[in-house]
Amino acid sequence: MKTDSILGKIVVKPVINPTKPDELVEAATTSSTQPPEPSVEDPNKGKTTNKEVEDWMSEGDHVEWFQAEAEIIQWQEEWELKLVELIQARTYYHKMAEIWASMADTKPEASTTPGQVAYACGMASCLKDQAKQTLAIMNQARHGSLGTEADLAVFIKAEHVQFDDECQKASFSSFANNKLNHQQQAQMLTASSIASDKLNAPTLSSIEKVKAHP
Fold this sequence. Notes:
single chain, mainly alpha, two-stranded antiparallel sheet, about 70% helix, rod-shaped
């Protein structure tokens, strides 16, 4: 919008767009109907080389190996914590059973009643049964000989040494070679099956002979 002053009055003059409507319609039609420019792309752009495929497979093998190693370590930690809980529970049941048994064996006083003594004997017997059940569970896991937490500490230290030795023997290179051998065997089996199918397939000449002599 433009303004002009005539005799002290402000006159508003509209600004006219220089582009004509016909030109706008023509530009819109030409832009919508104009075909896209042809693009020339490299035909080998989307292809991957054997080296890239091998690198990608090796990276996947590394990820799979370290994931399996992390799962083994996590499982070992959970197993050790479970053994600690079992030993602590067994020690607790034995200690509480001794306390209730000592309370039942004390000389009756004026404040104690036969019912209280019977209750103490029942609690001692129940706690002894729970200790036996805990020992049975540890025997099933082949760790019933671990009586105290000191025994468990020695056992865990020996397990860690054995685990480190096994990890050094089972390196990633041996895992990759073993997996490569399996892949080669699978490729050989696939190739042999294809070759046998080709040998057993009827040839064109044999089919023509059958047609000529039904």
